[in-house]
Write a structure and sequence with these properties.
The complex is a heterodimer. By secondary structure, chain A is an alpha+beta fold. Chain A is about 50% helix and about 15% strand. Chain A has 11 helices and 10 strands. Chain B has 3 domains: about 80 residues, no CATH class; about 110 residues, Beta Barrel (Butyryl-CoA Dehydrogenase, subunit A, domain 2); about 140 residues, Butyryl-CoA Dehydrogenase, subunit A, domain 3 (Up-down Bundle). Chain B has 12 helices and 10 strands. The chains are: A alpha+beta, B alpha+beta. Bound molecules: flavin-adenine dinucleotide.
């Protein structure tokens, strides 16, 4: 476990200022900017993506040998929070966290060195195609198949659903079954597939939270030797590790979004007048605001724990921590989102006003990579965070 | 206390159930059950089907087309309607404006408007709320100044549901800015939506639908005959109307219908080795909703029976605010569970209008899962409209608990 220091270093503070500055500049008005960007082909601004690259943001988690900056989960948390605050639409989660994560954890040095520089300079986008119609939250539930083509490569067959930014990604990282039953934990491979490869058919769409995703069918899609990530059939561990990092990242995003909702609601309570007074003068609404604030603070705290544990090598400890993080953030996100809407009254329901956009994003963050219920059940199944005491001898 | 329904009551229930299932088009009922949006035509078709059977305005006085049903019959009628996904007759017509006209209108107004309201030949909308006047409705600012045989109306309404479909709007307007109490300066006007000077702008809600609007009045000439009740007594009409609005709002049948849908869908969604419905954690959440729903159903029956005994007749029971609070919470809990069933499959958003941002590339997602998130988002409104849940708490605190 890395040493615990709750203060950002000078370098981290610089990074925070620069990413906050970039996103504040690119998203001067959250709602209007998003609506404009959603009209772009991939649902985000390509010019904006280049700026992310120019500031080094796309290189953060990759090792220096591969062409990255070799920074850790604190830096990722800083970026995640900034995205959460502005609801930025650029495919950072898809390309750097998910695609990049799978590449870091499963890819060979040659594969990493071939791709990371292109990710870092913004010329290569990725998407992780792991979800299927029946898989729900189980990463190991994989029905898409990969059969050896006899020449050292594979042929991929089947369908993936709701692949984040899968409509525009240059390359897809696909989980596919090499052997075993659909729900076997062994026998899952990760494959690098060109988005435009023959046999890949993508149906893109906007998501409920204003981003984009695609349903993707693979029909006899050929993958050469160089497209196999990691040891064939042993992909699950890398996939789980990638998703654990994504959970920590999403928790940071959620905290950023909750922070904005709390601030915005607090401000509204102090300015909106009914019955001749600010509605915030009603004690019941003050208490509601206090409850939102408490949920936010608890989430900020668990985020620090999650950030600390995201880089943990021990899979069980890391997994349990991420379960805890996702439960806290999922519940708090729902509570804060719902109350932000409620305490705004009619205006909270509208697409024109920013509150609903944050509410919807938080709702979808909860449904991504396991909702609060799922992680609570899994955490309980693994014995929770605290060990039982032993009876006194 | 007799807790069983009589054979006559049970026969009545069968009769309405059969009617709903055989006469209201299945295509419309499926939309309601699956949580999809209704068109104006769907709403009017359902309304007119009930109208032809004499059931569009059961709560009205008999001489104007009411059925004279017992409270239990009303309850059964509403429950069966909701359980079977039948869109209710237009509420603005039937539970809001119609009863106000019957109570406060002139003979001429009743003769002209009530038959058209009942048949839904005119579609009505409600112009109460304003940008600065929501919970504090009595502070409203839209003015109506008397000039000869007309009022000249100026101002703005907001959140006006389905104004885009409406032929008429009933409005609260300020006729006396100098009244000693702000409530006393308010009047209730009926305004033809085709009158020059009226315009409306849709407000898209977060689920992407266009059901609410802003309505603007720019020197709109309204004949004085369209004043309902006395000038300056509009607040009485409003209080009467809001009381009626509240009793219908528990929607126990709708939530029951959704629980049934939850069970149907959770059985087809895999979770672990079985289905989501086999997952005790999920099944317990559903069961908890069922317990609360049963209690709410009994609360509703108690309020009905209490009203009958006390002969409260028409006057809203302040305890009906419990129905609004619990009813809205359960509508929200059930739509939330439906979205949870969909899980990641709730993510795809299918655009409805050509001018929405983003684009679809062919058929996407899993059909049953697509409406679940929009339906959850949309149902956040049920604890806001018709008097927010916080305001309902204030009503109970004051009128029931005596604080
Ligand atoms: C989808 C939708 C459809 C609607 N349709 C119609 C329609 O057809 N016609 C129409 O006239 N109106 C309609 N409304 C308006 C609705 O009645 C108002 O939104 C509602 O009365 C709340 O007013 P407001 O939005 O101005 O919120 P506000 O009154 O500003 O309330 C903001 C917050 O403050 C709280 N609050 C206010 N006062 C108090 C208090 N004294 N104590 C404690 N808390 C308080 C509220 O509960 C809320 O949480 C609709 C609203 C929605 C969302």
């Amino acid at each position: 476990m890395p040493p615990m220091d709750l203060e950002l270093t000078d370098e981290q503070r610089l990074l925070k200022d620069s990413v906050d500055g970039l996103l504040a500049r690119r998203y001067p008005d959250v709602v209007k900017t998003r609506v404009e960007m959603m009209k772009e082909p991939g649902g985000y601004s390509a010019a904006g993506w280049k700026e992310w690259a120019d500031q080094g943001l796309l290189a953060i988690p990759f090792s220096e040998d591969d062409g990255g900056l070799d920074q850790g989960s604190v830096e990722m948390m800083i970026v995640g929070e900034a995205i959460g605050r502005t609801l930025a639409l650029e495919p950072y989660l898809a390309t750097v966290v998910l695609g990049g994560g799978a590449l870091r954890h499963a890819g060979s040095a040659a594969q990493r060195q071939a791709l990371v520089p292109a990710i870092a300079d913004g010329s290569l986008t990725l998407a992780l195609a792991h979800q299927e119609k029946q898989s729900r939250f189980d990463l190991f539930d994989v029905g898409v198949t990969a059969k050896p083509d006899g020449a050292g490569g594979f042929v991929i067959e089947g369908e993936k659903m709701v692949v984040l930014n899968g409509d525009s990604a240059d390359k897809l990282i696909v989980s596919a079954r090499v052997s075993g039953d659909r729900r076997a934990k062994d026998g899952i491979g990760l494959f690098l597939v060109d988005g435009k490869a023959a046999g890949v058919s993508r149906r893109g769409y906007p998501t409920q939270d204003g981003r984009r995703a695609a349903d993707i069918s693979f029909s006899s899609v050929k993958v050469g030797k160089d497209g196999i990530l990691g040891e064939s059939g042993q992909g699950l561990a890398a996939l789980e590790r990638t998703v654990d990092e994504a959970i920590a990242f999403l928790a940071a995003e959620a905290v950023g979004a909750m922070d904005v909702l709390h601030e915005t609601t607090l401000d509204y309570l102090k300015t909106r007048k009914q019955f001749g007074v600010a509605i915030g003068s009603f004690q019941v609404l003050q208490h509601r605001s206090v409850d939102m604030f408490t949920a936010l603070e608890q989430s900020k705290s668990i985020l620090i724990y999650g950030t600390m544990m995201a880089g943990e090598d021990d899979a069980l400890g890391r997994r349990k921590a991420m379960h805890a993080v996702k439960v806290q953030v999922g519940k708090a996100g729902r509570h804060i989102g719902q109350d932000a809407v409620q305490l705004h009254g009619g205006i909270g329901m509208t697409a024109e006003y920013k509150v609903s956009h944050y509410f919807k994003r938080l709702t979808m963050i909860d449904l991504a990579f396991g909702n609060a219920d799922h992680h609570l059940r899994e955490l309980a199944r693994l014995g929770g965070l605290i060990e039982a005491s032993k009876p006194a001898a | 206390m007799d807790l069983r329904f009589s054979p006559e009551e049970l026969a009545f229930r069968d009769e309405v159930r059969t009617f709903f299932r055989t006469e209201v088009p299945l295509s419309i009922r499926r939309k309601v059950i699956e949580g999809r949006e209704l068109t104006r035509e769907d709403i009017v078709t359902s309304h007119k089907t009930l109208y032809k059977r004499g059931w569009a305005t059961p709560g009205w006085a008999k001489e104007w087309g009411g059925t004279g049903w017992s409270p239990i019959q009303f309850y059964m009628f509403g429950e069966e309607m909701q359980l079977n996904g039948v869109p209710a007759p237009v509420g603005f017509n039937v539970t809001m404006h119609g009863p106000v006209l019957i109570q406060f209108g002139t003979e001429a107004q009743k003769k002209h408007h009530l038959p058209r309201i009942a048949a839904c030949d005119d579609f009505w909308c409600q112009g109460f709320s304003e940008p600065g006047s929501g919970s504090d409705l009595a502070s409203l600012k839209t003015t109506a100044v008397r000039q000869g045989d007309h009022y000249i109306v100026n101002g703005q309404k907001i959140w006006t549901t389905l104004a885009q479909y409406a032929d008429w709007i009933f409005c609260l307007v300020r006729t006396d800015p100098n009244a000693p109490k702000k409530q006393l300066g308010i009047s209730y006007l009926m305004i033809d939506m085709k009158t020059p000077g009226i315009s409306h702008r849709p407000i898209v809600t977060m689920d992407g639908t266009r059901e609410i609007n802003e309505v603007f009045f720019d020197n709109v000439k309204v004949p004085v005959e369209n004043l309902v009740g006395e000038e300056g007594k509009g607040w009485d009409c409003a209080k009467y109307l809001l009381g009626n609005e509240r009793t219908g709002i528990a929607r126990v049948g709708t939530s029951k219908m959704r629980v049934a849908r939850i069970k149907e869908l959770a059985r087809i969604v895999p979770s672990g080795a079985g289905s989501l419905m086999d997952d005790p954690q999920f099944a317990e959440k559903v069961a908890m909703v069922e317990v609360e729903l049963k209690a709410l159903e009994m609360t509703q029956l108690r309020i009905i029976s209490d009203d009958r005994k006390s002969g409260r007749g028409g006057k809203p029971n302040p305890a009906s605010s419990i129905l609004k609070i619990k009813g809205s919470e359960l509508q929200q809990a059930t739509t939330e569970l439906l979205m949870e069933i969909a899980g990641p499959l709730a993510l795809p958003y299918v655009r409805q209008d050509a001018d929405e941002p983003g684009h679809n590339e062919g058929e996407v997602g899993v059909d049953w899962a697509l409406p679940t998130a929009p339906q959850y988002f949309n149902n956040r409104k049920v604890s806001i409209y018709g008097g927010t849940n916080e305001i309902q708490h204030n009503i109970i605190a004051k009128a029931v608990l005596g604080f």
